[in-house]
Write a structure and sequence with these properties.
Order of helices and strands: EHHEEHHH
Mean pLDDT: 91
Largest sheet: 3 strands, antiparallel
CATH architecture of the largest domain: Orthogonal Bundle
Number of strands: 3
Oligomer: single chain
Distance between the termini: 84 Å
CATH class of the largest domain: Mainly Alpha
Radius of gyration: 25 Å
Helix content: 55-70%
Structural class: mainly alpha
Shape: elongated
CATH topology of the largest domain: Multidrug-efflux Transporter Regulator, Chain: A, Domain 2
Low-confidence stretches: 1-6
Number of domains: 2
Number of helices: 5
Strand order of the largest sheet: 1-3-2
């Protein structure tokens, strides 16, 4: 670890440890790095992830699960450093969360209707098939 860093070695994780802890691939971590969502330190050839990187990855994965875009996640993560006791970050998180929840509820409603429509079509086709088979049996 860098000698000028006040953190202990236990505060850092290697890429392998991060992958195991968060159940992601090294490729995923490198992708988030390329999008500047994570910024691990370099110690020689190795990447080491701080507690801050670990917290950021946890939030990134949670945001991904909720369907947030990477740009939205970047905006939220960048607000952490404002120094306003995270008020702005929490306000934007609430705003993004409410918007996403609204979108998900609309998708849920649409999906429910699509499921009902598909079930009706399946029932109709099954009935048509049964009727035609019955007609064939009578003709035979």
């Amino acid at each position: 670890m860098p000698s000028d860093a006040p953190q202990r070695e236990a505060d850092f994780r290697t890429i392998g440890e991060m992958c195991a802890l968060f159940q992601v691939t090294p490729r995923s971590l490198r992708f988030y790095e390329s999008k500047e969502l994570l910024a691990p330190l370099r110690v020689g050839q190795k990447r080491v992830y701080s507690r801050s990187d670990q917290a950021r990855l946890k939030l990134i994965l949670q945001g991904k699960r909720f369907g947030f875009s990477l740009e939205a996640m970047r905006q939220l993560l960048d607000l952490y450093a404002l120094g306003d006791n995270q008020v702005t970050q929490l306000e934007r998180s609430l705003e993004f969360g409410c918007e996403r929840l609204h979108d998900m509820q609309a998708q849920y409603t649409e999906l429910g209707q699509a499921i009902r429509d598909l079930q009706s079509q399946i029932d109709l086709v099954a009935q048509m098939l049964a009727d035609r088979k019955s007609d064939q049996d009578r003709q035979a």
